[in-house]
Amino acid sequence: MKNRTAMLVLASAVVFASSIGAVAGCLSLSNGGENGGGISAGSTPSPSADAGLGTPDATPSPTATATRETPRNTETTRTTTTATTRPPQDSGPRIVYFRIKQRPQCPQGTSEYPVEGTPVIVEWKVTGAHEVTISLDGPGVYGTYPTEGSETFAFSCGGADPGETVKHTYLLKTVGGGSTRSKQISATAEAYEVTQV
């Protein structure tokens, strides 16, 4: 009877030990699967991403390089055009001319055969005025004349020494039509000695 009981106890212990071993094996397999270290029979291990086997390196894309063209020495010639603006012409009086038409001469010869002197003749032309005035040897007006014409003046040589140059001036001024215009001219002649006989 005792032997039978011992046999039952031994069988129970073997079964218990087998159960514990099976449970331990299951726990071991479960832990291995979670840690990635377990390899089941007949399975082919997959390569790890960290192994670097057969993984091609990324090819760097070409870097865009800016190319700067060297400026050429180009000479540019600029033509500057200067516009000449003429001032508007005055529409008032204008002296076209005022000049000596005949040159004078002083008297000469002798008291018995005298040679009379030659008077001076002046002429003028004016536009845009009503009339003109002429002054002789000073500002005083000698006479008033039309805008175009001529006048004869006696040329006095009295009081001059023989060989001396006698000079008289004539001043023309415009009257009316706008701003006054003026011009002065001179006439000269040489004085002679008149011999008394």
How would you classify the helix and strand content by structural class? alpha+beta
Query: Gyration radius, to the nearest Å?
Result: 70 Å
Contiguous uncertain segments of 5+ residues = 28-56
Largest sheet: 4 strands, antiparallel
Q: Tell me, briefly, the overall form.
A: rod-shaped
Report helical residue fraction.
10-25%
Total strand count, please?
A: 9
Enumerate how many helices there are, as a single number.
1
Our measurement of the CA-to-CA distance between the termini, rounded to an integer number of angstroms, reads: 219 Å
Whole-number mean pLDDT: 75
Short description:
With 197 residues, the chain is of the alpha+beta class.
Structural summary, described in words:
This protein has one helix at 2-35, and strands spanning 94-102, 108-109, 114-115, 120-127, 131-136, 141-145, 148-153, 165-175, 182-190. It has 197 residues and is of the alpha+beta class. The strands form 3 sheets. Strands 6-5-8-9 form a 4-stranded antiparallel sheet, with no helix packed on it. A 3-stranded antiparallel sheet has the order 1-4-7, with no helix packed on it. A two-stranded antiparallel ribbon has the order 2-3. Strand 8 (165-175) and strand 9 (182-190) form a beta hairpin. Mean pLDDT is 75; it is low at 28-56.
